[in-house]
Amino acid sequence: MREREIAIIRSSRQLFKITNREKEKQMLEAAEKSPLAIFREHCEKGELVYRVDPDGNGFFYPRLTAPGTGATDLKWRVSQGLGTVYATTTLFPRGGDPYDVSLIDLDEGYRMMSRVEGIDPLDVKVGMRVKVRMVPGTENEPIYPVFDLAEDI
C-alpha cells in the first residue's frame, strides 16, 4: 500500500510540474504579444475584435485587464462591425480639411471612438447605422478601423 501511495505522489508531482510549465509557457506567449499587437493582426485580416470579461461584458480598447474589475481571464471576440453613432463632432484643424470623430455603439454591446467617412463630416448624425472598414496601414501609420454608412440594414 505504501508503494502505491508513493507512486501516486510522484505522479502528482510530475503532473504539477507539467501544469506549471504549461502555465508558464502560456504566460510567456501572452507576454510576447500585446493586446494591441493582437488587435492589429485581426485588423490586417479585416476583423474588428474586442475583449470580453468573465461576466460576458464587452469592452474596447484592447487591454490586459477588464475595466472596473481588473479581471485578467479575458476572451477575444470578433465583431460583426455594425453599430450606431452614439455621439459625433466635427473637427476643423487649422489649414486642414474638417473631419468627423464619433463614438460608435457596436451591436455586441461595447463602444469605441472612431470616424465616420464617406459622407460630409457635418452630415454625420446620432442614430445613424454604420459598418466598419479597415484603412490600410502606411509606413508611418498602422492599419485602423473607420466606419461608413451601413446601407440596407
What structural keywords apply?
single chain, about 150 residues, alpha+beta, five-stranded antiparallel β-sheet
Q: How would you explain this protein's 3D organization?
A:
There is one protein chain. The protein is α+β, with helices and mostly antiparallel strands. It is elongated and about 80 Å long. The protein starts with a helix and ends with a strand. It contains 2 helices and 8 strands; from the N terminus they run ααββββββββ. The strands form 2 sheets. The chain has a 5-stranded antiparallel sheet. The protein has helices spanning 2-32, 35-44; strands spanning 49-52, 58-59, 75-78, 82-91, 99-106, 111-114, 129-135, 144-149. The model has no long low-confidence stretch (mean pLDDT 86). Strand 4 and strand 5 form a beta hairpin.
Layout of helices and strands:
Layout: H1 2-32, H2 35-44, E1 49-52, E2 58-59, E3 75-78, E4 82-91, E5 99-106, E6 111-114, E7 129-135, E8 144-149
Antiparallel strand pairs: 1-2, 1-3, 4-5, 4-7, 5-6, 7-8
Nutshell version of this structure?
The protein has 153 residues and is α+β, with helices and mostly antiparallel strands. It has helices at residues 2-32, 35-44; strands at residues 49-52, 58-59, 75-78, 82-91, 99-106, 111-114, 129-135, 144-149. The strands form two sheets. A five-stranded antiparallel β-sheet has the order 6-5-4-7-8. A three-stranded antiparallel β-sheet has the order 2-1-3.
